[in-house]
Every structure is written in C-alpha cells, then in structure tokens.
C-alpha cells in the first residue's frame, strides 16, 4: 500500500480523497493554487505545496509543477480526482516515466476510451450497441456529407473534452453550417482539438451510466446504474440510483455487458460507461469516463462500497476483493449539484464570500463540500460548491428527505441553485421518474427558469 499520495485537484473532490487517505493510514499531499491557499482541502491535507497562481492553466493544469511537487514530497502515487488532468494521457505517461503511480487506467487504454470515436469503435467490437455515427470530422464539407447520410435531427459532439462543451442538437439542415462552425471553434479553444463527430438523435432519451471496477489482474465487477437524465445544457444537475423506471433485468444486462466490454479492452481501475436509453428501452453506448465521476456518492450509498478506497487499492496492486454476487443494492440515493449560479438569471455564475454556512443533517444525509463560513469563492474555477446526497429505503422517501435537507441547507452571501433544486424535486414529472435529457429545457417555465 502507498505511504503517501499527492492529490492533483481542489474543492470537494480533493477533500474526499484526503479523507479516504486518512482512513487508510496514507499521508496526503495537496497541490494548490495561490487562490486556494485558504481552502479546506489545503487545511486538511498532511502536506501542501503551492504550484502557481489562480488560473488553472498556471496551476492545476501545470504538469511540470505538479510532477515536481510529487517528486519533492516523495509521493508514490497521484490521484487526479475528476476534471483537470484526470483524463490527460500525457500526464499519465509522465507519471509512469518518473515512477509515480497514476491512480486510474493506463495511458494507452485511456487514449482509446477517452476519445469518443475510438471508444465507440472499441465498444462495437466488444459487442455493445451504439447509435449510427461518424468518424472524426474536421472540415465543414465532410461534415455536410455525413449529416445528409445520418439525417436530421442529429447530435453534434466534440471528440475531446467533456462538461457538455461542443454538444449541439441540430434540428434542420439550414442550421448545420453555423452550428458546426461555432461548436468547432468552442472545442478548439477549450480542448485544443477541433475534432467533431455526428450521431443520430434519440428523442426523450434517458442518460444511464454503469459504474465498473477492474483490478490489475482483469477481475471486474459492475456496481449498478445511475440515472443522470436531469441535465441543463448537457451538464448533469441531479443523479440517482437505481434508475426509477428501467426494468431491473435490463439494468443487470447493461451491467454485465459493460464489465465484459471493459475487460476486453484491458481497462483497469474505476470507470463509467454512459448510455442513452430510448422510449422502447433500447440502449446505446455513448462514451466512457476513465475516472471517478462527480456523482459517485449515489453508487456508494446504495452499495456500501467506498469507490475512492477501491481506486487506491487497485492502483497499489491489490486484487479486487469484490465478487459480483457479493454486491447488494439497497434503497435509493439522490444527489443534487449545488452551484454558485443564479438560476433565475440564466444560471449566471456567482462569486463572493460565504457569510454563513449551515449543512443539513439527520439520517441518510451526506454533504460533500469544501465550504465554510468566511470562505471566498474564487472566480477561476468550476461553480460547484457542494454535492448534497441522501439515501432512503424507497425513492419517495429519498425525495422527501432531499426536500427536507434542501430546506435546512444555508449558504448565505451569494446566490446558489438550492431554490432551483427545490422546484425540480417538487415537479410532478420528476416525482414520477419521467425525466429525459431535455426535460429541464422543455419544463423550463414550470421550473421557474423560463
């Protein structure tokens, strides 16, 4: 087992990894920007090293500085969390070159599964169904030809990156040229890769993902599914497990196929396969996230398995102790992402000082957050402030518990999305489990954001 792990991230996920390390008797080193000098993870870690100024390009994406910090501190492994360098193949390769363990898959497998087009091709070979789509497109003329072949409406997606960037629904041919050009410029700026691919559009699609764990000896398990259909601009805002309306037999089939597929490509560590499910319950592989997901807590609450600890154990070379038949799913979990945004003003980002901070409590309530009273929200990073997660025996009880927890949650000093989540939890469509990827957009008026 590792004696010391460096955490190449910030915010709630950095704090989450620090806590796992402490419970496992592993010393933690946190790298941080100047803007995060007074953050809770920096306070809680055993060691701390400043790696640059506030902007992430000069700090959390600064590979030479992070590697230097790991070498100086004698860290044996690096946990990348999510975002930033978590799916950067160059970073994983450099870690290997300097004999530091990257807590995640190998760079070679990450390069295949992290690229959406090559991942599709690999999963087709492994037997997973996919939507009709295209190879990588880089010119408008070849994209026009491909669009005519697929037909409208269709989805345009970036090959690289994530976070909903570069994803567009195009309904009519006359919209195509403009949208393609805008999306390509967006992803070129964000990811330094202007690759685009097209995919057939599925109306009222549900976004369902399967969590997998695979050790270095090829033994793997799936930990069930998460429904992530509540999205805004292709960004998830609420996740739950299990899926409220999919048949259990279908979810088990998806899980078994997912684990066989990743074993076939030699995947190791934790990962998530994302699927679209249509109204006839036909499912199609979309992409794979080769890292820990923001929404991993809902899986932890329904399985009782600590995913971060399992990541660390696998990376250290220990065999997975879990067998598929040992994994029991119990109850229902819901997570909401509370962000520093004003939902009543088109989710405009907010900054400021947290003047008062009171977290909800009681049975079945978990808060993953780096906030505290007096904390100043820096302007350089993602707007995620907190993940509020609840567990209960039934979905209806989980909804009631979440509504109660949201009522208790106090984050004063800046506008957050707590009021929006209260409205979402009270919407009849959500209560009935009838959500799909465009649900929030189509119900915007009812949700008070129209």
Descriptive labels:
450 residues, alpha+beta, 8-stranded antiparallel beta sheet, 5-stranded parallel beta sheet, 15 helices, 22 strands, 26% strand, nucleotide-binding, EC 6.3.4.14, Biotin carboxylase
State the secondary-structure class. Answer: alpha+beta
* Major sheet attributes: 8 strands, antiparallel
Mean pLDDT: 96
Shape: globular
Alpha carbon gap, first and last residue: 52 Å
Describe the structure.
It contains 15 helices and 22 strands. Strands 13-12-9-10-11-14-21-19 form an 8-stranded antiparallel β-sheet. It has 450 residues and is α+β, with helices and mostly antiparallel strands. A hairpin with a 2-residue loop joins strand 10 (220-232) and strand 11.
What's the gist of this structure?
By secondary structure, the chain is of the alpha+beta class.
Task: Itemize the secondary structure elements and their pairings.
Blueprint: E1 4-7, H1 11-23, E2 27-33, H2 40-44, E3 47-52, H3 63-73, E4 77-79, H4 89-97, E5 101-102, H5 107-114, H6 116-125, H7 140-150, E6 154-158, E7 168-170, H8 173-191, E8 196-200, E9 206-214, E10 220-232, E11 235-241, H9 248-264, E12 269-277, E13 283-289, H10 296-303, H11 307-315, E14 332-339, E15 341-342, E16 348-349, E17 352-353, E18 356-358, E19 365-369, E20 376-377, E21 384-392, H12 395-408, E22 410-412, H13 418-426, H14 428-431, H15 439-442
Parallel strand pairs: 1-2, 1-4, 2-3, 4-5
Antiparallel strand pairs: 6-7, 6-8, 9-10, 9-12, 10-11, 11-14, 12-13, 14-21, 15-16, 17-20, 18-22, 19-21
Helix pairs in contact: 4-5, 5-6, 7-8, 12-13
Protein name: Biotin carboxylase
Function: This protein is a component of the acetyl coenzyme A carboxylase complex; first, biotin carboxylase catalyzes the carboxylation of the carrier protein and then the transcarboxylase transfers the carboxyl group to form malonyl-CoA.
Domain Biotin carboxylation: 1-445
């Amino acid at each position: 087992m590792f004696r010391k792990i460096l955490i190449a991230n910030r915010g709630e996920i950095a704090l989450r990894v620090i806590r796992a390390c402490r419970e496992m008797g592993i010393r933690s080193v946190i790298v941080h920007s100047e803007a995060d000098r007074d953050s809770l993870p920096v306070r809680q870690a055993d060691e701390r090293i400043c790696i640059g100024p506030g902007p992430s390009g000069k700090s959390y994406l600064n590979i030479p500085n992070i590697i230097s910090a790991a070498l100086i501190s004698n860290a044996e492994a690096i946990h990348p969390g999510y975002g930033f360098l978590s799916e950067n193949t160059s970073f994983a390769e450099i870690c290997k070159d300097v004999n530091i363990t990257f807590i995640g898959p190998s760079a070679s497998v990450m390069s295949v599964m992290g690229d959406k087009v090559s991942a599709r091709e690999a999963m087709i070979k492994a037997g997973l169904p996919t939507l009709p789509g295209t190879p990588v497109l880089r010119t408008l003329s070849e994209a026009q030809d491909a669009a005519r072949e697929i037909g409208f409406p269709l989805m345009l997606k970036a090959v690289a990156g994530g976070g909903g960037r570069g994803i567009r629904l195009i309904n009519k041919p006359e919209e195509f040229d403009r949208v393609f050009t805008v999306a390509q410029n967006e992803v070129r700026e964000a990811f330094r890769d202007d690759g685009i691919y097209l995919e057939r559009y599925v109306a009222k699609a549900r976004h369902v993902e399967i969590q997998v764990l695979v050790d270095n000896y090829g033994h793997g398990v799936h930990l069930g599914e998460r429904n992530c259909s509540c999205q805004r601009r292709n960004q998830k805002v609420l996740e739950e497990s299990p899926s409220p309306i999919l048949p259990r037999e279908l979810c088990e089939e998806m899980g078994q196929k997912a684990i066989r597929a990743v074993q076939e490509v030699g995947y190791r560590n934790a990962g998530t396969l994302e699927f679209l499910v249509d109204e006839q319950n036909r499912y199609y592989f979309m992409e794979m996230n080769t890292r820990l997901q923001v929404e991993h807590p809902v899986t932890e609450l329904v399985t009782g398995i600590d995913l971060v600890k399992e990541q660390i154990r696998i990376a250290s070379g220990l065999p997975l102790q879990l067998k598929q038949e040992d994994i029991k799913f119990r109850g229902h979990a819901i997570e909401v992402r509370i962000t520093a945004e004003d939902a009543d003003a088109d989710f405009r980002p907010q900054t400021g000082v947290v003047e008062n901070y009171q977290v909800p409590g009681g049975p079945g309530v978990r808060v993953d957050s780096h906030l505290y009273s007096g904390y100043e929200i820096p302007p350089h990073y993602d707007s995620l402030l907190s993940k509020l997660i609840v567990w209960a025996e039934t979905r209806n009880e989980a909804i009631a518990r979440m509504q109660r927890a949201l009522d208790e949650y106090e984050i004063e000093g800046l506008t957050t999305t707590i009021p929006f989540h209260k409205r979402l939890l009270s919407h009849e469509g959500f209560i009935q489990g009838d959500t799909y990827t465009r649900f929030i957009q189509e119900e915007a008026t009812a949700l008070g954001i129209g």
